[in-house]
Amino acid sequence: MGMSHAPPFGCNEYPPGGARPDEEAFVSTEQQSPKHTIFLQRNSKVGVELSMAIVIEGYVNIAGKRSNCEFPAYPGVPGRFYEVIMPDAFKTSLLQTTCIKLKVDHTRVIGSTHSGELQLADDSRGLWAHALISDPAVIAAARSGCIRGWSFAFIAEQSEWYRLDPREKLYYRKVKRAKLLEVSLMIEKDAAYSGTTVNVKNVEEEKPWSFMKLKEILRP
Questions:
Q1: Strand pairing report for 126-133 and 54-62
Q2: If 0-12 CB within 10 Å is exposed, 13-18 middle and 19+ buried, where does residue 60 land?
Q3: What does the alpha-carbon distance between residue 73 and residue 40 come to, in Å, rounded to a whole number?
């Protein structure tokens, strides 16, 4: 997505010159969990009352799974297209990007990797997110089963294009490397990809990777 105006909903990419997250210096580190490598930022703080929060986690994108919808053409791409995010496409971005935002329906910001509410990993299955949620509207939606899934926005840095129909400008894009800008919990809108997973739980259910432990790790 992304000239100076907002791209059409469902097309997850911001083209060159589009919106960027706030850039701030950081020092990254890694912590190991049984399934994932979690990328944290030591200068972040989790400023959330844990007793009032919930945890939402799951796969934001399943690697190798084609998008549900056909994306419209925009400047810089050859035509209308479907796309697939390849394994490890976001791995470099998770190590280098200073702030990846957590939003609701690609609009309202409710956290970020920098402020500590969001942790992300790119493993063999896809892009995984672990979010500490204190927003009352999102908590209510989660407890009533109204969260439709995850979505994300990115800038493609390395892609391969294939023409699907020689009679039309319809293409298939493999995104091999991308800069991740945001992940979003979808409540009012549908995501461009199926197969995402959403697991909701209370903070007290976190084991062995509790947010109390995370808060200790992130303390400056």
A1: antiparallel
A2: buried
A3: 36
pLDDT tens per residue across all 220 residues of the chain: 332 233 333 345 544 333 333 322 222 223 333 333 333 333 334 444 555 788 999 999 999 998 888 889 888 888 889 999 999 999 999 999 889 999 999 999 999 999 989 999 998 899 999 999 989 999 999 989 999 999 999 999 999 999 887 787 889 999 999 999 999 999 998 887 877 788 887 766 654 444 444 444 334 4
Q: What is the CA radius of gyration of the chain?
A: 17
Number of C-beta neighbours around residue 219 at 10 A: 10
- For tokens 């939606």, the residue is 141
Alpha helices in 18-132 (DSSP H): 91-96
In which region does residue 67 sit, left (phi positive, over 0), alpha (psi from -120 to 50) or beta (all else)? Answer: beta
Pairing of strands 80-85, 170-186: parallel
Cβ atoms 39, 99 nearer than 8 A? no
Name the token pair of 3.
Answer: 């000239």
How far is 150 from 1, CA to CA, in rounded Å?
17
Tokens 């303390």, residue located: 219
State residue 30 phi and psi, 5-degree precision.
-125, 140
| Structure token digits, residue 209 | 């990777």
List the one residue out of 25, 19, 22 whose CA is nearest residue 6: 19
Q: Could you tell me the two tokens for 158?
A: 């390395």
Q: Which of 9, 31, 206 is nearest to 107 (CA)?
A: 9
